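Hello,

I think I submitted the NDP job twice by accident. Can you confirm which output corresponds to this input? Input:
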Amino acid sequence: MTTTERRVAFVTGASRGIGRSIAQRLAKDGRHVVLVSRSAGPLSDLASQIKDAGGSASFKAVDVGDSAALAKAVEEVAAEQGRLDILVNNAGITKDGLVLRMSDEDWNAVIQTNLTSAFVAIRAAAREMMRKKFGRIVNIGSTSGVVGNAGQANYAAAKAGLIGLTKTIARELGGKGVTCNLIAPGFIETDMTANLSQDIKEGVLKMMAVKRLGAGEDIAAAVSYMTSDEAGFLTGQVLCVDGGLTMC
Ligand code: NDP
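Support: Only one job matched these inputs. Its output is below.
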């Protein structure tokens, strides 16, 4: 494939953390990467960095919790680029609390941002992928969605919902050359985990087979394979990239 025929990847939550690492990795893999999150500034800076390094990137500032805006952004990219090959649903938030104290507002916000957005983006991208008979969809879940986590009823439910969504999309679109898989990260050092206490971090480390916390690049490496042309026989899978924390 020539550079004028680069595969186009739409990556949500690309401004920082895991999404930023995924975007940088896919750019290195030769993709045109469309960077998506709420704030234009960091996306613009990252797009410039990727281009300075010889890659190809553009950005769209979108709140993935706004379903109409998200669907419009996906459709615009497909129209502007003439293709949309790869979708990585990575944007996510936490609003933790024990179930007795969890408000409807915190429940709904996490379900909307972490689960509904993935459904909306997939629905918007699927037509173009099916038309081209090629697509690679990766949803970023969490080990909390596989084994549960006290204090995260909303988050674990959203991430478990992503697993059902992933397997269903895999079954619906597999015959059209579109795969859909989920990566469940364990503990990755980003803004999301920065405020957790040293005690919690040490407790997690004790349970891990690999005695270090994860980095965004650990997740990006798995996304790179799942979105490659050669991964066409891999679909409906849940891959826990967690340093042996759960071995789920
Ligand atoms: P960060 O908090 O570091 O980054 C979150 C990213 O999502 C940012 O780019 C943020 O951009 C974006 N984002 C958040 N809300 C929205 C929104 N409404 N619309 C658009 N973009 C949004 O998180 P991580 O990198 O740690 O997490 C990335 C994913 O990995 C999440 O889905 C998370 O649940 C999952 N994960 C993380 C783990 C960890 O240990 N870090 C473990 C397991 C799963 P901006 O604020 O600029 O909009």
